[in-house]
Amino acid sequence: MMGSLCREVVTLQLGHYSNFVGTHWWNLQDASLTYDPDTPPGELQNDVLFREGQTLGGQMTYTPRLIAMDLKGSLQTLRQEGCLYETGKDLTALTWEGNVMMHKASPTAKNPFLLDLDKLDKGEQLSGVDFEQIPVPHCSVSVETINSRLERAQKGYQLEGSVRVWSDFLRIHLHPRTISVIHKYNHDGETHLLEAFGQGEALLQGTVLEELEDRLHFFIEECDYLQGFQVMCDLADGFSGLGSKVTEMLQDSYGGRGILTWGLAPVSHPDTTPMKELYHLFNYSLGMVHLAKNSSFFCPLTLKGGLARQPPAPPFFPHLNYDSTLWYHSSSVLALALDALTVPYRLRHNSIPMWEFADTLTVSGRKVVAAYGALPFPMAQGSSLPDALGACAATLPWKPLSTCPELGDGRCFGQSVTLRGLEGQSLVSQQRLGMQPPTTLHSLDCGEDVLSSYINGHYPATPFSVHLVSSPSKLTPPFPQIFSQTLGPQGFLQDQAPPLNTLSPLVSSIPVLTSLQSSPALGPWLSELQRGASTMDPRRVAPSFLSQGPELSDFQESLEQLRLLAGCYRDDCDGTLRSSSEEDDDS
Amino acid sequence: VFPRLVSHNLALITFSSTVCGLIYLTNVYIMSAIKALNPKAEVARAQAALAVNISAARGLQDVLKSNLGPKGTMKMLVSGAGDIKLTKDGNVLLHEMQIQHPTASLIAKVATAQDDITGDGTTSNVLIIGELLKQADLYVSEGLHPRIIAEGFEAAKEKALEVLEELKVTRVMDRETLIHVARTSLRTKVHSELADLLTEAVVDAVLAIHRPNEPIDLFMVEIMEMKHKTDSDTQLIRGLVLDHGARHPDMKKRVEDAFVLTCNASLEYEKTSVNSGFFYKSAVEREKLVAAERKFIEERVKKIIELKNAVCSNNNKGFVVLNQKGIDPYSLDALAKEGIVALRRTKRRNMERLTLACGGIAMNSFDDLTPECLGHAGLVYEHTLGEEKYTFIEDCGNPRSVTLLVKGPNKHTLTQIKDAVRDGLRAVKNAIEDGCVVSGAGAFEVAVHDALIKHKPSVKGRAQLGVQAFADALLVIPKVLAQNSGYDPQETLVKLQTEYKESGQLVGVDLSSGEPMVASEAGVWDNYSVKKQLLHSCTVIASNILLVDEIMRAGMSSLKG
């Protein structure tokens, strides 16, 4: 009975890059929604993330249970309250009978995608697309959605040049309580930037706190079985500090729930300087400690090569062809990974509540976990999972998404593996009758067993769980086309690349394999971060970093905690925090 | 050597506000020297620095000038995306603007700090600072050293504070006086009809929560907004309005004469202390754990029901549970069957208010529930608007926490009324705590000007010029008040000064006629603490800006990492 409950999740997006990832993520969620009553319910329960609502005019709405925070000037074309609950444009000042002076900014220019979206919202046709020639999939006209139209239009929007902020590719409507703008700091420009951890920490008080509490209250009070929060938080700037305070507040107020925090960082920032890089390093370190402490688990999520000041090159994904400096691109890869990583607590049946999910991965204070992903999972068109896994028998197909490379020695404290996008029959070997199976993988009867057996081969005798979901993440526009020529429309490897000079078909979905791990590899990785930050004296190298707190002693205490956290990952460690007198030298 | 004002990001003279659509560009930026050490650093010196700063201060003054007073101009800011902000409040406006100029930003910070401390006076602050610098500039350009002017400012401020002490009117803060104070504040924010409506609500709200000899805690006045298509109204609820309702279809929408149980203890399934790993446990085992936890919750619900049956057995009284933690559908169901109305996830900040409004004790566990823990409300009812629900808890006997309910057709109207109500509350609180008030409508400034001119000869040397500058600067308030109402500022000022000399009474501008009026008779009262704070902060910031003789701009990009 309790197993099939809808356990609601409230999502928080703190910071501009988090909102980039979040926007892709919600576009992906939206693409998999179906309003057709005849379609059987999917494997994932959408009500976990979305809420049903009603406008003052009585119209039904379905919007994310989401709070997104960003800075002044970051919204551009997006209205803070959205337009779903609009009560009509009223430009009269009811409260004043004297002079009213109007200051109207010229409307912000919209890119072709947003213009098309406006057209579809108004029920108009898209230009350049002949709908008559495109076969309508068998569903009644009434459930024709903006998504299905965009999907069928197969229009490739090249938004690479025109995406400035996340609202430039936001496809869905948000609830008026979703967007919260912090007026104290500017999104861009030269002054009043939210750059340091301490600035962010100091933000969560007074009206900012009260407003956040009100928004949380609105989304949470209506939940019957709230399972927790997924927090996406920028790690490089002051949002790292704000996130620390927000998660602390969540823990105080909703202690029994899960708080899964993803620390996001873009590969690079525009106009960066050595000083800013130093700030980032401090923000990563402080954020790592505090977000981990206040969350059920904390997972850094970035395509950077490392968190040090001169990081190595980003990980190479053989079938992706993306520009790592573009936030629009890198955030789409992370959103795709997140769509698989979060599967266990979003399942319609036998889902695992967030708190249980986190507890299992964070035994003995090991609150930081690392993510890995095969994007896409390399599989030839028409082949099977045993074949595909057999092809990567020697090395795991996934790459680090938290900058923490695997040790490759088979040690792991626990991991959750998710495979999305493979249909039932391709999960097991097809050539069984009478033939000797080439590998043990080919002899197994179900996908779970095949994948488990494979993981077990690489991580023998370590605890792990596998989840398989057959529906892939649907990549409808404006998801960027960042795939190599070798991928077919369903994201499987093609035997031969399409001939030159022909337009390759748009990739509309890809299979994804992810792993979330707590492993000894995190120990030296955290130590390295700690050493990088503690060799610098902020008073000397970045005097204004601590100007709004924390105190130097607290700063040093946080780095000491980071060192102790790293110690939790020693293999011989029984889990109790090691006392500081013990020398810790794991590298 | 003068003190230097060096900041990392100094001297961007664009003072722009892309959000509001106000754009100010002042091209006075002068790059007088380029530092050999740091080619990217930009420097402006002495007179040039002063010119830069003064123009920034005047720029800010120009933006806010038209706001001052009941006849000022309302500003409607529409962003590129269509977001609307409606305001007449200098404080709100300063928060909305993206001020890039460091000096302007400094002034804005002081002015908004004034609002944080006293709740009003932002616009006056900006106007006086701008005017002090303008007056000072007249003398500086003739060769007077800024430091001497600053000395004069300081002397003038001391005198002005003395005059403030003499002119303040100490009296018992009865309802009528408070209404005058609140009205003076509110009429500058919203139109007179609405202002009068708000005035009564605001004064009664503060009087309801005020206990003699105790500081007034305005957190005990909740401002609740309600978006309503047709209704536009503000009313005082002597109790609480919560923006959520009961989550069970069988619970009553209206309960009279009710016991109120305020509590903070979970009535829903939460994670157990047992460390349950999904690596090892089957679905069946997990179900068992959940069932065990449910039993625990059921016990708690039982205790509430027992208490309800104990106190409601021989009467028709209602029973309402307000819980800060969650209540899951099973618990709601059990409570509903017993005729109990239950609300979950009451806001943390409302918990204290609830017991202050209804009485009783907030319970953190259900182990020792007794009838003494319960509060009381004469009426509890639910109101639904679209997807929003409101629960009114009224008729609370002697509530020490009340609610101002603001209804309006759209967000920007609601926000503006809420801002005005907040300022009104602060004005009433200040008046009660000061125990005195000061004549408004420019009367105070005219009187101080007069006193300073008389005081001038007793100041030594050229600092007298600073006193003169200070006195003249204060007159910006009556002048702008007159100007905003469409009267000639100089003519009005002369009339005021003449009338003041002749009658000796504190006269301000009558904005409906442009003629002098006795401010106290017209009931135009300002806060003593606002005026006092104003004199202090304007002098400090204007002096500091005057003394800046070098502006350096060193962007982050030029610092070595």
Automatic annotation (TrEMBL), chain A:
<feature type="domain" description="Misato Segment II tubulin-like">
    <location>
        <begin position="7"/>
        <end position="119"/>
    </location>
</feature>
<dbReference type="InterPro" id="IPR029209">
    <property type="entry name" value="DML1/Misato_tubulin"/>
</dbReference>
<dbReference type="Pfam" id="PF10644">
    <property type="entry name" value="Misat_Tub_SegII"/>
</dbReference>
<keyword id="KW-0496">Mitochondrion</keyword>
<dbReference type="GO" id="GO:0007005">
    <property type="term" value="P:mitochondrion organization"/>
</dbReference>
<comment type="similarity">
    <text>Belongs to the misato family.</text>
</comment>
<dbReference type="InterPro" id="IPR036525">
    <property type="entry name" value="Tubulin/FtsZ_GTPase_sf"/>
</dbReference>
<dbReference type="GO" id="GO:0005739">
    <property type="term" value="C:mitochondrion"/>
</dbReference>
<comment type="function">
    <text>Involved in the regulation of mitochondrial distribution and morphology. Required for mitochondrial fusion and mitochondrial network formation.</text>
</comment>
<dbReference type="InterPro" id="IPR049942">
    <property type="entry name" value="DML1/Misato"/>
</dbReference>
<dbReference type="Pfam" id="PF14881">
    <property type="entry name" value="Tubulin_3"/>
</dbReference>
<keyword id="KW-0963">Cytoplasm</keyword>
<feature type="domain" description="DML1/Misato tubulin">
    <location>
        <begin position="162"/>
        <end position="347"/>
    </location>
</feature>
<protein>
    <recommendedName>
        <fullName>Protein misato homolog 1</fullName>
    </recommendedName>
</protein>
<dbReference type="InterPro" id="IPR019605">
    <property type="entry name" value="Misato_II_tubulin-like"/>
</dbReference>
UniProtKB/TrEMBL annotation, chain B:
<dbReference type="GO" id="GO:0051082">
    <property type="term" value="F:unfolded protein binding"/>
</dbReference>
<dbReference type="Pfam" id="PF00118">
    <property type="entry name" value="Cpn60_TCP1"/>
</dbReference>
<dbReference type="InterPro" id="IPR002423">
    <property type="entry name" value="Cpn60/GroEL/TCP-1"/>
</dbReference>
<keyword id="KW-0143">Chaperone</keyword>
<dbReference type="InterPro" id="IPR012722">
    <property type="entry name" value="Chap_CCT_zeta"/>
</dbReference>
<feature type="transmembrane region" description="Helical">
    <location>
        <begin position="12"/>
        <end position="30"/>
    </location>
</feature>
<dbReference type="InterPro" id="IPR027413">
    <property type="entry name" value="GROEL-like_equatorial_sf"/>
</dbReference>
<dbReference type="GO" id="GO:0140662">
    <property type="term" value="F:ATP-dependent protein folding chaperone"/>
</dbReference>
<dbReference type="InterPro" id="IPR027410">
    <property type="entry name" value="TCP-1-like_intermed_sf"/>
</dbReference>
<dbReference type="InterPro" id="IPR002194">
    <property type="entry name" value="Chaperonin_TCP-1_CS"/>
</dbReference>
<dbReference type="InterPro" id="IPR017998">
    <property type="entry name" value="Chaperone_TCP-1"/>
</dbReference>
<comment type="similarity">
    <text>Belongs to the TCP-1 chaperonin family.</text>
</comment>
<keyword id="KW-0067">ATP-binding</keyword>
<dbReference type="InterPro" id="IPR053374">
    <property type="entry name" value="TCP-1_chaperonin"/>
</dbReference>
<keyword id="KW-1133">Transmembrane helix</keyword>
<keyword id="KW-0547">Nucleotide-binding</keyword>
<keyword id="KW-0472">Membrane</keyword>
<dbReference type="InterPro" id="IPR027409">
    <property type="entry name" value="GroEL-like_apical_dom_sf"/>
</dbReference>
<protein>
    <recommendedName>
        <fullName>Chaperonin containing TCP1, subunit 6A (zeta 1)</fullName>
    </recommendedName>
</protein>
<keyword id="KW-0963">Cytoplasm</keyword>
<dbReference type="GO" id="GO:0016887">
    <property type="term" value="F:ATP hydrolysis activity"/>
</dbReference>
<keyword id="KW-0812">Transmembrane</keyword>
